Amino acid sequence: MVSEHRQLLYRYYSLFHFPASTCHFCNEPMTGDTSWLVHLGSIGLLVLLEGLLSGDNALVLALLVRHLPKPQRQKALVLGLAGAAFFRLVALLVAKSIIQFWYLQALGALYLFYLPAKHFLRRKKPKGLPEVLPAVSLPRASSLSFWKTVALVEFTDIAFAIDSVLVAVTVSKELWVVYTGVILGVILLRFGAGALVVLLEKRPGLEHMASLLVGWVAIKLGMMSAHNFTLTFDLAWKSPEMPIGLFWAVTGIVVVLGSIVAEREHRRQKSMPPTTTKE
User: What is the value of pTM for the model shown?
Assistant: First the structure.
């Protein structure tokens, strides 16, 4: 009876704590009962962030192929999807190998901090299609052949993928988890870009929520960097990594509260009387 109680306590303890000397990418302890929940949560978080943060990016890719004949547009996007799957796998493998160095982790954390800071500090811009039009040179794109357009879509997608790949390798150490989450997010963007843009137009609070989640991932990566710094130089005091339970608890709170606030703001705007312009 006592041993059963000890095993139960250990499961709860292992869910909310892991030793500070454990490298996040090496031997993060996880019980069999909780690992699949963490993996599913990681995949869901990556799909959520890919969709909310990259809706406009997917719309840009759609604009790049709109000069093609209609039968070729979908073909170009499908080929771009295949290329995105390959290049993201390469990017994940490279990022997973180099991000184990504390100084690269620190740079990655600073970059991820920059993204939400830019989001919340930038001046308010008009939303909708005109906002993304200046981001691509449509006249030049319209003169490209089919395969040159596919190549342009690939290079543009690679540029957009830097932040999502960095977030992915921070959220989970399992390659199949991060690859599944990233690819599902890419598929969602390819075929649901228009719907995602409309959703963000109606509920802009969801984009704020996603930016907060990126900032939270940056804190995790920063703590990972500090931890590996103390291990590299064998300091007497070892900086702890973020407990996995704390990471997911705060992530869940941000998602739930952010969704509630976004929905309330949407309903409040719908209930407001339409503005009339005086002639």
Answer: 0.72
